[in-house]
Amino acid sequence: MELRPNRIKHKLAAGDTVYVAGGMTHPDDIDAFGPNGFDGVWLEGEHGPVDAAELGNLTRACDIWGMTSVVRINQNDQGLIYRTLDRGAQGIVVPHVNTKEEAQNLVDGGKFAPIGYRGMYTSRQGYAVPDYLQVANDETLLIILIEDIVAVNNLDEILTVDHIDVFFVAPSDLATSMGHIGELQHPEVLGIIDDTLARIQDAGRVAGTLANNDNVAKYAAAGVRFLFTSVGGWIAAGAAEFKSLAAGAK
């Protein structure tokens, strides 16, 4: 048995763009979404219901379709980081990373020695993989969220941390930290987002952000290679169109 490849990690290494969807909370949802050809599923453990007991089945559903299971946890804690990986996640997202030291903490908890200090345990992904402890680091995806203006101010130092795969600019919290709560289209907010994404790429690192059908082309054209969206927007738009078409026929 060989370790399952991390689709997102391999595509990013090849210079490709990856597409990740969130808003799914049950393995059957992931299974139904699988044929759409996305690269990963964002499992929400900060604001959503995902916890350790559910991760086995959620990540198995991702495995069936070769999609990377990406879990956002709710705090930058090394024990929580590697327990989430032990339960089968292929990727970790840590919120509110504001300093170089906080970014390094994700690496320390998410990688086995000699890179980090992840606890020596065979993950669900490692069952029957004889060299799991030697090869797991190569297939573990680490993502930090740049979602506070203090992180933008410290960005140059944060970008020097090795083994972070994606530096993800999170618009809502960033806008709030700038004094523009709920104003995601404020010119100052958009300017900081665009500048931050550019700085990440200028440093030779991978930039990611939240996108929707209205702005995904803009971010793709700007070189953003980790594009995350929620299925909730598609459901709402489709439902509204359905009712509108019916109402227009009367």
Report on this structure:
This protein is an alpha/beta fold. The chain has one domain (7-248): Alpha-Beta Barrel (TIM Barrel). The protein is built from twelve helices and eight strands. It has helices at residues 7-13, 27-33, 52-64, 78-86, 100-110, 132-135, 149-153, 155-158, 171-177, 187-202, 216-221, 231-248, and strands at 18-22, 40-44, 68-72, 91-94, 141-146, 166-169, 207-210, 226-230. It has an eight-stranded parallel barrel with strand order 1-2-3-4-5-6-7-8, surrounded by six helices. Strand 7, helix 11 and strand 8 (226-230) form a beta-alpha-beta unit. Helix 2 packs parallel to helix 3 (52-64) and helix 4 packs parallel to helix 5 (100-110). The radius of gyration is 18 Å and the shape is globular.
Average pLDDT for all residues: 97
CATH C-level label: Alpha Beta
**Beta-strand residue percentage:** 15-25%
**Total DSSP helices:** 12
Query: Based on DSSP secondary structure assignment, what is the total number of beta strands?
Result: 8
Shape: globular
Name given to the CATH architecture: Alpha-Beta Barrel
